[in-house]
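Exercise 7b. Backbone tokens:
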């Protein structure tokens, strides 16, 4: 039971790589594996910013860089916010104000 509860806290496997997570999320988002994928410093841009994955790091500078790309949708790992509720709340509000669909997993 304890192991199952821990899986809800951090759903990312210890053996998983960022690239593998990106491809899994790509498929779960309904995108084709032949999609145009660009790896920027701390995020992945899919099909010319149609979708952005934040899987490595999250801070104000990265959020601002993502917003500058004007994506339609952004998916981020919840654990990247490291219990920084202020950053997460501000990110949600900034994305909403920019008309970007934002989701954490």
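Sequence design result:
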């Amino acid at each position: 039971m304890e192991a199952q509860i821990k899986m809800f806290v951090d759903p990312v496997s210890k053996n998983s790589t960022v690239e593998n997570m990106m491809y899994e999320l790509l498929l779960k988002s309904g995108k084709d594996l032949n999609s145009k994928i660009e790896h920027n410093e701390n995020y992945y841009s899919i099909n010319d910013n149609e979708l952005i994955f934040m899987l490595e790091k999250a801070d104000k500078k990265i959020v601002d860089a993502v917003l500058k790309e004007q994506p339609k949708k952004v998916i981020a790992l919840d654990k990247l916010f490291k219990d920084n509720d202020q950053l997460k709340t501000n990110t949600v509000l900034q994305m909403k104000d920019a008309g970007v669909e934002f989701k954490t997993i």
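Instructor comment: The longest helix spans residues 85-97. DSSP finds four helices and five strands in the chain.
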